[in-house]
């Protein structure tokens, strides 16, 4: 593993940092307070290659690698986690899945519009009764005599669902086969039979629009099958491995923002005649925050490096991705908690972004595989036991 970054990787990091500081950070409080989807900022990110960082140039992306993706995601998340959620879904869950399992026509039709920031993509796996247990899904796609599929059912907690043009959908095509009966499809949300529910009133990442979606006799054409029939579960698990690197990066960005704000605060805030950063209990918290932050970043870069290696030589990176997400998400929750505690009453006030960092950090322990699921993935991969 090379700890040095290439000029190209540093360039995309600089672009992300500039947009994050000039566009995203100044509007973060407004978007958090109102829940307004940051479409203008997302368009700017797309125009600068950040909605398709690992997407090859021939499909409208920046043509970069997983390391560059981590570096850019951290910068965006440090400015506002909600923006980074939208970026993560477009990059990791939408574009990555189609690039890996889609055909040439699907790549041209679906990936280009998303990578260029002209449209928004989404990923529909979770259902009201099936979260961590994806094989319990009830959304059904029934094959018709003319080769089309008729889809009926609901999906819940769909990030970018209220605004998405295209969605990667997972539905049962054979209920008797369990995981092997799941198929992935491409959905155009402007077609008859697709319905959006209310936007969820979330605790954090409030500008990242989330809703329930429903299908009523929605017709899917044969050319809209992603991969082959019955490969949906394999596709979903593969895509989630990549997504977990994105969420780990998001967690690092949130934690870094909280840590940097805390460093500044403990130098300036005085109590008993000296800066509170001079007190040993505060120093212990700062030291632990720094260790957790650095460990999370290194583990996430390792996962990104391993992803790049598997793309070249084959193999899996599920353990590395799970380790990165578990470590980074729990570190973000701990670091933002300590940051709030150190800031005291001001940390609890909406006058400072500390309480937003705390609220935003929590979701990183939940979506794209809870911390409990990450521990199962890691332990099962390590022991070989199921």
TrEMBL record:
InterPro entries: Acyl-CoA_DH_CS, Acyl-CoA_Oxase/DH_mid-dom, Acyl-CoA_Oxase/DH_mid-dom_sf, AcylCo_DH-like_C, AcylCo_DH/oxidase_C, AcylCoA_DH/ox_N, AcylCoA_DH/ox_N_sf, AcylCoA_DH/oxidase_NM_dom_sf. Residues 122-217 form the Acyl-CoA oxidase/dehydrogenase middle domain. Keywords: FAD, Flavoprotein, Oxidoreductase. Residues 6-117 form the Acyl-CoA dehydrogenase/oxidase N-terminal domain. GO terms for molecular function: acyl-CoA dehydrogenase activity; flavin adenine dinucleotide binding. It catalyses: 3-sulfinopropanoyl-CoA + H2O = propanoyl-CoA + sulfite + H(+). Residues 230-381 form the Acyl-CoA dehydrogenase/oxidase C-terminal domain. The keyword Flavoprotein applies. Its EC number is 1.3.8.11, 3.13.1.4. It comes from the Bacteria. Its cofactor is FAD. Belongs to the acyl-CoA dehydrogenase family. This is 3-sulfinopropanoyl-CoA desulfinase. It comes from Novilysobacter ciconiae.
């Amino acid at each position: 593993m090379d700890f040095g970054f290439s000029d190209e990787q540093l360039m995309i990091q600089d672009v992300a940092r500039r947009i994050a500081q000039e566009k995203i950070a100044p509007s973060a409080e407004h978007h958090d307070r109102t829940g307004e989807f940051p479409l203008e900022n997302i368009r700017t990110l797309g125009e600068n290659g950040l909605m398709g960082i690992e997407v090859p140039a021939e499909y409208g992306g920046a043509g970069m690698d997983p390391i560059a993706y981590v570096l850019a995601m951290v910068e965006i998340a440090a400015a506002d986690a909600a923006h980074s959620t939208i970026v993560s879904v477009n990059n990791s869950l939408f574009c990555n899945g189609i690039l890996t399992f889609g055909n040439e026509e699907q790549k041209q039709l679906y990936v280009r519009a998303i990578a260029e920031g002209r449209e928004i993509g989404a990923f529909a796996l979770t259902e009201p009764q099936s979260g961590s247990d994806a094989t319990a899904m009830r959304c059904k796609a029934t094959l018709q005599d003319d080769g089309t599929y008729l889809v009926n059912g609901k999906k819940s907690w769909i990030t970018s669902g209220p605004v998405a043009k295209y969605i990667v959908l997972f539905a049962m095509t054979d209920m008797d086969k369990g995981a092997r009966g799941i198929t992935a499809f491409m959905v155009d949300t402007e077609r008859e039979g697709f319905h959006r529910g209310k936007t969820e009133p979330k605790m954090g990442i409030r500008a990242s629009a989330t809703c329930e979606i429903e299908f009523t006799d929605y017709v899917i054409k044969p050319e809209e099958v992603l991969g082959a029939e019955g490969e949906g579960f394999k596709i979903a698990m593969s895509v989630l491995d990549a997504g977990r690197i994105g969420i780990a990066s998001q967690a690092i960005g949130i934690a870094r923002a909280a840590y940097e704000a805390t460093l500044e605060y403990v130098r300036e805030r005085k109590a008993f005649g000296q800066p509170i950063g001079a007190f040993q209990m505060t120093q212990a918290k700062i030291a632990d925050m720094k260790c957790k932050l650095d460990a999370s970043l290194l583990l996430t870069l390792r996962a990104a490096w391993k992803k790049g290696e598997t793309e070249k030589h084959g193999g899996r990176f599920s353990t590395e991705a799970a380790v990165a997400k578990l470590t980074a998400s729990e570190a973000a929750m701990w670091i933002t908690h300590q940051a709030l505690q150190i800031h005291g009453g001001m940390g609890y006030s909406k006058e400072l972004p500390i309480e937003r960092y705390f609220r935003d950090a929590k979701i990183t322990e939940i979506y794209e595989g809870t911390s409990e699921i990450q521990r199962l993935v890691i332990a099962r991969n390590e022991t070989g036991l199921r």
